[in-house]
Design brief:
Layout lengths: L42 H4 L4 H20 L7 H24 L8 H28 L18 H11 L1 H6 L3 H13 L10 H6 L1 H9 L2 H7 L2 H21 L6 H4 L11 H25 L14 H17 L2 H4 L6 H18 L2 H6 L1 H4 L15
Length: 382
C-alpha cells in the first residue's frame, strides 16, 4: 500500500532457493531490496512479482468497498445483513494478515523508517484532514474538527498499520507472539477506559491478525492454495453464510468492527474476551477460505492490486458523499434486491477505477510522496 511493506504493495515472487524476506519497498499496496550476499535468483527474476498477492489485494478491496456500500441500504434485508457479516468477518483480517506478512523484514533502520513515514504517516495526515473537511462542507457539519488523534471513517487502518509496523521488532523477538497478541486483544475488549484516541481499540483487537501475518512463511500460503483446502473451503463458506443468516437479527454489528469494548456495547465484560477469541477463529477460517480461492495466475485485475491504496482511501468519499447528499434516502428502491445489486456493481466498478494506474500516478504525491527534502542524505552521519 505504501512504499514500506504493506498490504497494498505489489508482492514479490519468492526465490526458489531460500525463503525471502518480504520485499516491500515499493508503491502500494512498492519495490524491495533483495537480501545482500545471499544465494538467490538473478536480478531479472528478483524483480518479478507474485500475481497471487496482487489478486488478493484487489479482490479484498472490492469486498471492502461493496460492504461499505451496503451499510446505508441493508436495513430490512436479513440476507444482505448476513452477507455483510460474513464479509466483515474476514475482509479486514485478510488485509491485516497480508500486511503483517510483508512487514516481516521491517526494522528501525533509516530507509524503512523513511518509507513508513512517507507511505503510512503522511497519507494518514493528508486523508484524515481531507475526510474531516469533506464531512464539514459536504456533510453539512461545520463544527467537524480536524483531529489527527481521532481517525475518521476508514483512516483508522493507516494509523493502526503505523503502530503495528513500529512494534514489529518486538513481535519478532518474542518466543510466543501470537498468544501475547491475543491476550492484548482480549484485555482491550474488556477495557472501556482505552477511549477513542488513535482508535486504539481497533489497533489492539485486530493486532493478532497482523502478528499472525508476521509468523507466516511462503510455504503456509502454498498449503492454503492446495486443492484439498479449496474443496474444504466450500462447505465452510456455506456453513458461515447459513450461520450468519440465523444470527443476523441477534448479533450487534459492533462486535465485527472491534471499535468498542464489551461494556460500551452494553454486554457483560467477560463476553468481550469470549468474542475476541471467537471472532479471531471465525475471521481466520474465512480468511483461509478466501485466500484458498484467490486465483494464482495473472488475470485482468492483477495489475490493479498495486493500486489498492488509492481504492481504499478514495472509495470512502464516494460512499460518504452519497450518504451526506441523501442519495440513499431519495432512492429508497436501492434497498430492494435489484437496488442492492446496482449498489454492489457500482461500488465494485468505482473502486476498480480508483485502483487503476492513472489514478495511482495522479495521487502519488499523497500516497508515495518523495519528501527527500525532509530527510538527511546519510542519517548515520551527525
Amino acid at each position: 500500500m505504501f512504499q514500506a511493506p504493506s498490504v497494498f504493495t505489489r508482492a514479490p515472487l519468492p526465490p526458489a532457493t531460500r525463503e525471502p524476506e518480504p520485499r516491500r519497498e515499493q508503491p502500494p499496496t512498492a519495490p524491495a531490496v533483495a537480501p545482500a550476499a545471499t544465494p538467490g535468483p538473478p536480478p531479472a527474476a528478483a524483480k518479478k512479482r507474485d500475481p497471487y498477492f496482487d489478486n488478493v489485494k484487489y479482490l479484498a478491496i472490492v469486498l471492502v468497498a461493496v460492504a461499505h456500500a451496503w451499510e446505508p441500504v441493508m436495513d430490512g434485508s436479513r440476507a444482505t445483513r448476513a452477507l455483510y457479516m460474513v464479509v466483515y468477518a474476514f475482509h479486514m483480517p485478510a488485509f491485516i494478515l497480508i500486511s503483517g506478512y510483508f512487514s516481516r523484514s521491517f526494522d528501525m533502520s533509516a530507509p524503512k523508517v523513511k518509507r513508513l513515514i512517507t507511505g503510512v504517516a503522511v497519507p494518514y495526515v493528508l486523508f484524515e484532514t481531507a475526510y474531516s473537511l469533506f464531512k464539514r462542507y459536504v456533510g453539512d457539519s461545520p463544527g467537524e474538527p480536524i483531529s489527527l488523534v481521532d481517525p475518521l471513517f476508514l483512516t483508522w487502518f493507516l494509523i493502526a498499520l503505523f503502530v503495528w509496523r513500529v512494534t514489529t521488532p518486538i513481535w519478532r523477538t518474542l518466543r510466543h507472539p501470537l498468544p501475547v497478541a491475543l491476550a492484548i486483544a482480549m484485555l482491550a475488549s474488556v477495557s472501556p477506559d482505552i477511549g477513542d484516541d488513535l482508535d486504539l481499540q481497533r489497533v489492539f483487537q485486530f493486532l493478532p491478525f497482523f502478528v499472525l501475518g508476521l509468523l507466516m512463511r511462503p510455504e503456509h500460503f502454498q498449503l492454503i492454495r492446495r486443492r484439498e483446502v479449496r474443496l474444504l473451503a466450500l462447505p465452510l463458506a456455506a456453513g458461515a453464510l447459513l450461520f450468519a443468516y440465523w444470527i443476523a437479527p441477534r448479533m450487534q454489528l459492533g462486535w465485527l468492527y472491534r471499535a468498542n469494548s464489551a461494556q460500551e456495547m452494553g454486554a457483560p465484560w467477560w463476553s468481550g474476551a469470549v468474542m475476541s477469541l471467537a471472532l479471531f477463529g471465525c475471521g481466520l477460517a474465512l480468511t483461509i477460505t478466501f485466500l484458498a480461492w484467490v486465483p494464482r495466475r495473472t488475470t485482468w485485475f492483477t495489475a490493479l492490486g498495486a493500486g489498492t491504496i488509492c481504492g481504499y482511501l478514495l472509495h470512502g468519499f464516494l460512499i460518504k458523499g452519497a450518504v451526506y447528499t441523501g442519495l440513499f434516502d431519495r432512492y429508497t428502491w436501492l434497498s430492494d434486491p435489484a437496488g442492492l445489486i446496482v449498489v454492489s456493481v457500482v461500488a465494485a466498478l468505482a473502486v476498480t477505477l480508483m485502483c487503476s494506474p492513472p489514478v495511482g500516478r495522479a495521487l502519488k504525491f499523497a500516497t508515495e510522496p518523495d519528501m527527500k527534502w525532509a530527510f538527511r542524505k546519510d542519517p548515520a552521519k551527525r
